[in-house]
Amino acid sequence: MSIWSAVLGGAHLVYHGAGWMEGGLTASFEKIVLDVEMLQMIAVTIAPVAITEEEIREGLGAIADVPTGGHFFGSPHTLARYETAFYEPLLSNWQSFESWEESGSVTADQRATGVWQDALERYEQPELAPEIEERLAAFVARRKVELRDVDH
What we know:
This protein is an all-alpha fold. The chain has helices at about 5-10, 30-45, 55-65, 75-80, 95-100, 110-120, 130-150; strands at about 20, 25. A hairpin with a 4-residue loop joins strand 1 and strand 2 (about 25). It starts with a helix and ends with a helix.
């Protein structure tokens, strides 16, 4: 949740942090997935809402159409927006406790493990021009040697 201070401060780019634990001393794939979930929820929360005069008229009409003591769940206005009006979480489980228990009591970190493993399984390496691939391989090889020399 520390990302909120950056968001509320008007940051346009947060360079790193997803997956970090212990002040960046360690990281995990599960934490990356959890952080992505939080970032998606924040993005949906702060996204601008398009309000037009027509939307206002339709909304006021829906309010007028529902009798006192009634509900909006069956109104055409609600039904027209229902499938797109909610954030669909990547990881969060919205089951009741009983349903969650009956379906195996899978915890958030267990679901996160499944998410990153699935993403890794579906990963397809992008096409790279041969000269770029060679330069990247040379860079990695050079850095491995340089980092090994630092340790000794």
